[in-house]
Amino acid sequence: MNWLQVRIDLAEMQAETVAQALIEMGALAIEYSDAGDNPIFEPAPGCTPLWDKTQISALFDGGVSQTAIQLIVAKSIAPTAVPRIHFALLDDRNWVKEWQQELSPMQFGEHLWICPPRRPCPDAHATVVTMEPGLGFGTGSHATTRLCLEWLSRQALRGKTMLDFGCGSGILGIAGLLLGASQVTAVDIDEHALTATRDNARQNDCLPQLRVLSATCLDPIAGFDVIVANILSSTLIELEPKLRDYSHSGADIVLSGILTSQAEEVASAYEKWVNLRRSAEQDDWVILTGKVN
After folding, report:
1. Can you give the pLDDT at residue 138?
2. pTM, whole model, 2 decimals?
3. Alpha carbon distance 132, 118 (integer Å)
4. pLDDT given for residue 99 in this prediction
5. Which fold has domain 3-93?
6. Domain spans in the chain, listed from the N-terminal domain onward
7. DSSP codes, 30-54
8. Could you tell me which residues come within 8 angstroms of residue 15 by beta carbon, excluding any fewer than 6 positions away?
9. Helix (H) or strand (E) holding 290
10. What is the number of alpha carbons within 13 Å of residue 291 lying toward its C-beta?
11. I need a labelling partner for 163 at 20 to 30 A (CA). Which of 103, 180, 227, 232 fits?
12. CATH class of 143-291
């Protein structure tokens, strides 16, 4: 069987409408990417990353009518003029399997590794997080996630409690458990993220030590030893009162998802109770860390 790939460049406000129409028509996969030259931001929990110019790429069964796709796109954005739609027929191949085979184990710090299933780790003494790649969830390749993983790999976590706020795939919380944390609470507002976190924790044999909660279900006063939040700078600023309640004196705070130009604003929002410093930078992203006063 062949596949039909559809690519459309759209304005920000049109992208979600068109994507929903394509899904209802039977799209097997939808991917968003930046159609302009803007930086790609790590999305806030439950959010789809959309830009001023967003490209949608959809995959259909090869027998789907191209004319029908053009009509459904036109209907979804009417009365706006229909943008050019690019069609391409792809040979019958197991695209997911090929993609997984191309993924390589990734190292963070000295002995922390993220490895796809059935791929051996090069380090016989490593702490290994097994992570099946999934659409929309982190596997450690983005700079914001990498910075957090490298920080975790250097910490003495044994016996500590940890909060992974905005958990996505659960990669940070799972890494924390495998590095010695006694219990991790993983929080997100996206139910798909919570499901992915549970599945990934089960695959890494650490589900009993992992609490997976909707953000609305977390106790306002919790007192975690380590708090990691890899979201967006604006969301981190909004979360400041909550993260203060979730911590205690001497707790470690780790904030990521921050561009270097935004670091000062985020640090200022927390300065009353924690002195945040730039711990590391990569690709214009920065991680802020500090101990609660």
Report:
1. 56
2. 0.69
3. 10
4. 47
5. Alpha-Beta Plaits (3.30.70)
6. 3-93, 143-291
7. EEEEESSSPPPPPPPTT-----SEE
8. 32, 50, 54, 56
9. strand 285-291
10. 4
11. 103
12. alpha beta
